[in-house]
């Protein structure tokens, strides 16, 4: 239930804070005063798209805040819990929407930034708006199905049916694609088998290419390597003219002949000894390299041949030689996948049949419940249109079974609203029979009837009484008050017969301050109610007669 609405800088509203009571609240005002501004602001809080033109002139941003009490709204509680958006205050939900002058929009649920889609989903569980143009949707057969399912509280069952249908549809599409591609898969399977056979013959393992290339490089340069090592050995010890070891020995002899205790000279002598040891170790290592690096032309030829085979296959597949092992694994995976296609086809056939059986069970169950709901809705709407100025009118929800061997998106029922406005005339589709005025009344009858079974805590009726007057308007007001007795109804109206039925009354006015127009909404006192009903009855000048009639209307509403 909506408990509070705060509006800041929205169109011609400066700042407005409304506490929304339970029951039926009538909303009236002069033409052009902005009676629908409150509903437009609510729509914004519930995720409707907008732009920067809604920001009041001279302001930086528009801000709407709507607070809801969720004690009896279990679907909304479950939705918030699933999204982890519960409020710190028990059974409360706050929706907030901010739109800047630059057109940037931000939305929040219980203080957490949320996308507009979340606001719309949650909003549909909190509030339901019946607009004055709702009768246009009655011309669409899909709307007939939706209204019937909502009235019969069959939406959860219908959603279960739709979910099953979508699963069946996805599996069926997969099965069709796999079956259609079977010939292509066979050709591809042959190619994969040939490619894998070629790679299997190669018996390449991870890291082998790098190892072969290093060994090839080493064997190709072995003569140069040995020559370089021998040259360095000569420098170290074998050169007759001068070599490192001779020079180091001579240097040590010179220092030893000094026969001194100079610490620095002793340190220098030790360093030369260390150098002599390192040169000898280096020479030993070089000798080992020469000994181990023996030329092997045959082995080099074998390596180069294997690398050539590897390079040829890599070029064939347009990949780097080091990627061949991974590529072979990829081909094996693809071949395994193709080999499993027959098993997958069999599995999909079993799954689609199981889903189809599940669908038809749900569809039969839904059809039976729809028929029961259709009979009940037909009687209820007929009763209401009779009260709304069509005493001989008759309404019927017609359900025809659809013969289909395959699941259908909306079930196995063709649902259509039939109506006759005059006695002796046969029932015909609503879009072919009803005039504009009759269609409005039928729409109102359907909305009022379905609202009585709605699980949405807050219902809004926005000038749905357009085109009616007199006793019919009084019936409409009585019906809305009856719904308000069970929950919360907000009704924008221009008819005194409807407004007088409200448990509460908001009056919308325009005010001018500093050459700027503002919309104001005030909660009327009992005296204010009388004056406003009298204004709706008698126009600008309020007479004792219209005031007395207004008091009588309000009194009658309270006693009914």
UniProtKB/TrEMBL annotation:
CDD domains associated with the record: ABC_RecN (cd03241)
Coiled-coil features, chain-numbered ranges: 265-292
One Pfam family, short name: SMC_N
Keyword line: ATP-binding, Coiled coil, DNA damage, DNA repair, Nucleotide-binding
PANTHER family per UniProt: DNA REPAIR PROTEIN RECN
Stated family: Belongs to the RecN family.
Name this protein carries in UniProt: DNA repair protein RecN
Species for this entry: Spartinivicinus poritis
